[in-house]
Amino acid sequence: MAASNENLKNMIGQEYKDGFVTDIESDSFPPGLSEDVIRAISAKKDEPEFLLEWRLEAYRHWLTMKHPEWAFVEFPKIDFQEISYYSAPKSMEDGPKSLDEVDPELISTYNKLGIPLEEQMRLAGVAVDAVFDSVSVATTFKDKLYEAGVIFCSFSEAVKEHPELIKQYLGTVVSQYDNFYAALNAAVFSDGSFVYIPKGVRCPMELSTYFRINAANTGQFERTLIIADEGSHVSYLEGCTAPMRDENQLHAAVVELVILKDAEIKYSTVQNWYPGDENGVGGIYNFVTKRAECREENAKVSWTQVETGSAITWKYPSVVLKGDNSIGEFYSVALTNNYQQADTGTKMIHYGKNTSSTIISKGISAGHGQNTYRGLVKMGRNAENARNYTQCDSLLMGDQCGAHTFPYIETKNPSATLEHEASTSKISEDQLFYCMQRGISAEDAVSMIVNGFCKEVFKELPMEFAVEAQALLGISLEGSVG
Amino acid sequence: MLKIENLHVSVEGKEILNGINLEIGAGEVHAIMGPNGSGKSTLSYILAGREGYDITEGRVLFNGKDLLDMSVEERAWAGVFLAFQYPVEVPGVSNIYFLKAALNGIRKHEGLSELDAMDFITRVKGKMKDLDMDEKFLYRAVNEGFSGGEKKRNEILQMSVLEPSLCLLDETDSGLDIDALQIVAEGVNRLRDPNRSFVLITHYQRLLDYIKPDYVHVLAHGKVVKSGGPELALELEKHGYAWVEEKLAS
């Protein structure tokens, strides 16, 4: 149906609605990377010696590493000396303040993004840590959470207030040598969020971090560390946006989750970094290492991600299932439109007995988008009766895009069970005609069919996020089919 | 209501409809019969606006407006409904959500407000009862995993909820057992109204035992070769389509 491909193209040509720039005076490092730069970041943060040493070890190791080439993505070589590794609004120089003291320009930026930081305006039940370029500008409901024993603050603050927790857990899931971008992050990370849920506590509200890149030519390198102590439970949400710029910008984050006995973390992401324009100019390179470790028995973690942004997405939220009976889940929707490229998936590493994992991946490709699922399911020697179920579905819109699947399986235990299902489909002419014949407009029909395709993932998202994700998918595909 | 004048349609240079003339008045029920490949389904697709056909000659007026000039959705909003021969599956989209989107799409264009959830569900449940459909159908994905009979019943449910003015039924009887056929036919009969017209496209006379047509047309080689009253269908049933061909030849 030639006509629908034409319409598909029109519908894709939508505006990125969060692409504005905040005009604010920043304190930025000149571009360049060296031990001095790392020392300077560490000094800005007034960090203890052990952390500086940790950074420098990572950096020295990074210098010996080669840029990885195995992902199914293409982009020009990154010159790491051309990036500025630190940028913070001038008004934030003295570290996070109370909300009354935060620059109104920053507050209005978050308002514009639909993330009001004033607690009375915020939807009850969601606490936010707002990260702007290299610093956390505010964390809401901190005191209320503290009453419940929950620590929720910026990473920098955690380093100061809870160094013992940082020392105990930092780098224990993703070491500072783990991979090229994780090592780079370890060397230069500037802020991020820190969460500790004490024993037996069910976190009284949803926690969330909202990442915003604003400054040009700056990389954002943040680190998130969440620890769920025995029998605790937390639901954590993550959102991200950036201005529209012609240059590509690097975002290389690390997320570490530690889940102890009988605890559970539910981690949800709606990733809406600027994807570049319709010709593939600009956009964020999103190279992220996310890993959870179910360290003790009956631990449970669930990653849910909706990826509509970034020029290039390269990430594999993974789970190491060490504790017996622990559970890992991965639910993902990745959309690539225009010239976006996504190489995303997960790793489920089973070490404990009776561990189980579920992978549901939905890839949608439109325009010239390239969408790759890459996954590893590994059953260790002691993973008696471990189980995995994997389902990878791809939906193609138009005839210029691509969907690729690379599932890897390694098993060293004969009692393990693995199931894998995969499908590739197109939004068919028949489906569109059927919907339109019933009086549903072409755009609504596409959005309905795509949402139907993603349903199994959306139902895993917290309510508020599910609505946002559906709307975002609708906007990202506007004009996609006729 | 509907006036088809000298309609010629071809696909990839091959002529499928070859000068169709038909006039359907408000409240009338017309049956279009004919052998396989006579162009029956093509006619229903053309009226509903499916792409992929070349209309080389002729015109179609719907309530005085040029139907062929309207998009698929515009035709639906104007009251054209096609009950599909092979209803399409829409995975992950529940029947109730689909119906609601369709109804509100149409209401929007009639300048009506969206039906609220309670009014909507009451309306749908009543119609489902008439069609002997279990309420659990509402929460299943559109046509996914439905049996042939369930799909056809679902088409009639949509038709009853959307209340179109021109109903095109494309071989709705195919794949139905006799009980299901009766239920579907009753559903259609219940919708008969002085302001609503029906075009029944069928291969067999048996549907017409339950839905009495006002007129019967025989389509062969892309042309209406014979028109008459309900008795024409009986004659066809008796003599087969070869009889029409013979008559034409003589």
Describe this entry's structure for a reader.
The complex is a heterodimer of chains A (482) and B (250). Chain A has 482 residues and is of the alpha/beta class. Chain A is 24% helix and 34% strand. Chain A contains eleven helices and 23 strands. In chain A, strands 5, 6, 8, 10, 11, 13, 15, 16, 18, 20 and 22 form an eleven-stranded mixed beta sheet that branches. Chain A has a ten-stranded mixed beta sheet with strand order 4-3-7-9-12-14-17-19-21-23, covered by helices on one side. In chain A, α2 packs antiparallel against α3 and α6 packs across α7. Chain A is globular. The N terminus of chain A is likely disordered. Chain B is globular, with a radius of gyration of 18 Å. In chain B, α5 runs parallel beside α6. Chain B has one domain: 3-Layer(aba) Sandwich (Rossmann fold). In chain B, β1 and β2 form a beta hairpin. Chain B is of the alpha/beta class and 250 residues long. The relative contact order of chain B is 0.18. Chain B has a six-stranded mixed beta sheet, sandwiched between helices. In chain B, strands 2-1-4-5 form a four-stranded antiparallel beta sheet, covered by helices on one side. The two termini of chain B are 35 Å apart. Chain B is 39% helix and 28% strand. At the A-B interface, α9 and α10 of A face α2, β7 and α3 of B.
